[in-house]
Design brief:
237 residues; Spore Coat Polysaccharide Biosynthesis Protein SpsA, Chain A; 9 helices; single chain
Length: 237
């Protein structure tokens, strides 16, 4: 099977529960990526062992921006795909998304989302998110960090992710990238995403937090301090 000129990069910290599901879904793809890189923030569980068992290249991680940058430095392919450990890919996801990206001559892209859940509240929340992503795409673009396609040349041109940002580094990233290349959302697939944060913190609390983050970005600016108690960073220096 011919491999796609694609490096997948996955930031991790204690993801032994979710990472195998993603890696299995990658193994089942109709076309395989050239490599999978796990940028791990010194997990305390079996994350690194699992990654190596699946044949992944493992590099040092950190907060998501730093982990993605480290993964990109280790990547050998011209196209990068940043994923979070708790997503799951449909069987033809890589083949069809890469094909659409090339056909539409996009330099950076993502997918709309659907929850790995049958709860009507989760379905409604993700429909609202998709609507907001769509209507703000041209004048106030956002990109979910759990699914970012970008050419490595563009990633390097804009200096990668801003590692000084505690949150919303993905939105800063797409706004800078959009100035140098075409950006849009792919339509062939919605990417299935975990609802573990919605369940863990509460749906209303998460919704309120992201509204507050958006207002901060609009009226105050980038988030360089952990004022929203971003949990990933609690374990990292």
């Amino acid at each position: 099977m011919k491999k796609l000129p694609l490096s997948i990069i996955i930031p991790t910290f204690n993801e032994e529960k979710y990472l195998p599901r993603l890696l299995l879904s990658i193994q089942k793809q109709s076309q395989q990526p050239a490599e999978v890189i796990v940028a791990d923030a010194y997990s305390l569980d079996r994350t690194r062992k699992i990654a190596k068992k699946f044949g992944c290249k493992v590099v040092a991680g950190g907060l998501p921006g730093k982990a993605r940058n480290n993964g990109a430095k280790a990547a050998s392919q011209k196209l990068l795909l940043f994923l979070d450990a708790d997503v799951v890919l449909p069987a033809s996801f890589l083949e069809e998304t890469v094909e659409e990206m090339v056909e539409r001559d996009l330099a950076i892209a993502s997918c709309y989302v659907k929850p790995i859940s049958r709860d009507k509240r989760d379905i409604l929340l993700h429909k609202v998110v998709n609507y907001y992503l769509r209507v703000t795409r041209k004048f106030h673009p956002h990109i979910p960090g759990f699914c970012i396609f970008i050419y490595k040349e563009l990633h390097e041109l804009i200096g990668g992710f801003d590692e000084s940002l505690v949150m919303a580094e993905d939105h800063d990233y797409v706004r800078r990238a959009k100035k140098r290349g075409r950006f849009s959302y792919l339509t062939c697939y919605k990417i299935p995403v975990s609802v573990r944060r919605l369940v863990g913190e509460g749906r209303l609390k998460i919704a309120a937090k992201y509204i507050a983050i958006e207002l901060h970005l609009l009226f105050i600016g980038q988030i360089r301090k952990n004022i929203f108690r971003y949990e990933y960073s609690r374990h990292l220096s």
